[in-house]
Amino acid sequence: MTDQPPTQGDASATTVAPVLLTEPRDGVPDTIETAAALARAVEAVAAGTGPVAIDAERASGYRYSARAYLIQLRREGTGTVLIDPLPFADLRTLGAAINGAEWILHAASQDLPCLAELDLRPQTLFDTELGARLAGFERVGLAAITERLLGYSLEKHHSAADWSTRPLPDSWLTYAALDVELLIDLRDSLAAELTEQGKQDWAAEEFAALTQASAPAPRNDPWRRTSGIHKVRGARALARVRAMWHARDELASRRDLAPSKIVPDAAIVAAAQADPKAERELVGLAGFRGRFGRSHARYWLRALTKARELPDAELPRTSPSHDGPPPAHRWSERDPVAAARLARARAVVTEVATERNLPTENLMAPATVRALCWTPPTETGEAPVAEFLRSHGAREWQIGLLATQLAEAVQD
């Protein structure tokens, strides 16, 4: 890498053109695909020093699973390592080599689940996207903050590629290596920014929470998120959406294809509305003329038949049930007092977030604010509100900034 980046501060970031980074400084390493090559890489990574930049590439939108199809690492004294995880049952030897080192990731919550599947779990981490949010940056994508803080421009045109492709094209591997090329420098620059703003302890709490986060609970009735379902009327038609959604999900899982690659949501909605009873009727619908629509016509018809034969007692509700508060736009008619509490609480969060140069959603999760306002603690005062927030996953720095004012906001 021969180009040197411009010296970047906030003032110069808007006036000095960034340098386009097209190649890693040490070149693109060979992808590790064998046990012997992995053993050598693990030894090299273990001999390195300092934090470890790490990234993973998935095949979202192409595959059903969220597994990693490429792992990238970079460490001082090691350089960049690219690992194809497909030949390996796990990467626990690599995990042991970097055990105790700080991991640097961008948008860690996206990559941690697929890394955990390979027995790669951090003890400590630094999330550059989350750090940029806490610093109040408007644009927090990797390319944007690299450009702002380091003066380099990164091309992101392979971010939505099908990383299950084999062999991986050279240009994709270059892109992947560049994703970790500057993460260590970026971490240092963001850490300095957060310290200058007095937010380093907030960031430490947020990063610690990421290392302890468990997998999110499955959504209730995920079929209700079918795009266009609002066009479907009646419980029986909704049962057809549900049956088709689950049939598609099962087929997508077996083929390890994204559900949209089987048939699109629009096809499910069309079938639910038309309720076809013969193959000719089904394949005449938009969305069923492709490979999986036509060749699996009988499969789809069986799903529709099951929905048609369901007793009334087993039909889905026409409106979804909610474990927590109802949608906020219905509060004024359902509970005007709670709606007033929510308005006051939102105003508090917005005011404090503006004062502290934070996104409101990073100051306090909107779902937590809604839960507090819908069913506030029976006892008034700061302490019960603080405990309520804590029980809903709020961090201590958030509670310290908001508990007192939120306690006042939820008092009727």
Automatic annotation (TrEMBL):
What EC number is given for this enzyme?
A: 3.1.13.5
Entry keyword set: Hydrolase
Q: Name one GO molecular function term.
A: ribonuclease D activity
Signal peptide segment: none
Hydrolase among keywords? yes
A biological process term (GO) from this entry: nucleobase-containing compound metabolic process
Question: Which CDD domains does this chain map to?
Answer: RNaseD_exo
Quick one: where's region Disordered? Answer: 311-334
Which InterPro entries does the record cross-reference, listed alphabetically?
Answer: 3'-5'_exonuclease_dom, Exo_C, HRDC-like_sf, HRDC_dom, HRDC_dom_sf, RNase_D-like, RNaseH-like_sf, RNaseH_sf
On the tree of life, the source organism's domain of life is Bacteria
SMART domains the record matches: 35EXOc, HRDC
Gene3D superfamilies per the record? HRDC domain (1.10.150.80), Ribonuclease H-like superfamily/Ribonuclease H (3.30.420.10)
Keyword hit for Transport: no
Per UniProt, residues of the HRDC domain are: 234-314
Coiled-coil blocks: none
Q: What is this protein called?
A: Ribonuclease D
Name the species this protein comes from.
Phytomonospora endophytica
